[in-house]
UniProtKB/TrEMBL annotation:
Its main location: membrane. Belongs to the 4-toluene sulfonate uptake permease (TSUP) (TC 2.A.102) family. The chain crosses the membrane at residues 6-26, 38-59, 79-99, 106-125, 137-163, 175-194, 200-218, 230-252. It comes from Reyranella soli. One of its GO terms (cellular component) is plasma membrane. It is found in: Cell membrane. This is Probable membrane transporter protein. It is a multi-pass membrane protein. Keywords: Cell membrane, Membrane, Transmembrane, Transmembrane helix, Transport.
Amino acid sequence: MVSYIVSLFAGVGLWTAIGVTLVAGLMRGFAGFGSAMLMAPIFAILFGSADMVVTVVAIELVVSLQLFPQVRQHADWKVLTPMSIAACAAMPLGVWLLASVDKNTIVTAVSAVIVAFVVLMWTGWKYTGRRSTAATVAVGAVSGAMMATTSVGGPPVLLYLLSGNDPPQVNRANIVTYYFLTQFLLIVIVLATGVAGVDALIRAVVLFPVMVLGAWVGGRAFHGLASERLYRNVALTILFATGLFGLLRSWLF
């Protein structure tokens, strides 16, 4: 069993994956976001783009399952329902792209999304348009396609949801609930189409305890020691470096 698990991570890839997952957990613990964006480009390089999507989304799904009962009463279902339906409807297009596009292109795309997201967060840009049903559906569709192709579907949803005047508990509930409603279907679609195999799920099972440990340590060690702004900037700096690494690797190799 041990040799089989090691073989899933191609030897040295096991320790790289554990290290990346641990840092992703720390980020989730002290900043509350960014774990999928950190794991995606590195896992795509290690395991391939299709397996990366299943592994990352499965890890995030278990976290969503844990958090959803705590936040569901604060969720804005009028926004989340059309957004989630649109995301799920767009996932087959994303899976088709996942199966059709080579790994380096996926790494470049996800890295570019991460860098763009970090720059927008640093500049303080916010969506200023009206939260119409059409805009909500469009954001959901873009996010669903991105999630299926790169596992990183959060940036358009985060930027859209955080642009309003909702209190923090509603924003948190909306983000957690959106992932809860969409991630399971994505895993089913990717596995059912044969784009990725069960090995990707086994990797997620192996790595999830590392994510939990990192999140626990992050929450215990960092909260109360400095400002929330510092936590966010540290997380954004790590994400920016990860995205830049993915871009440079794609361009240079």
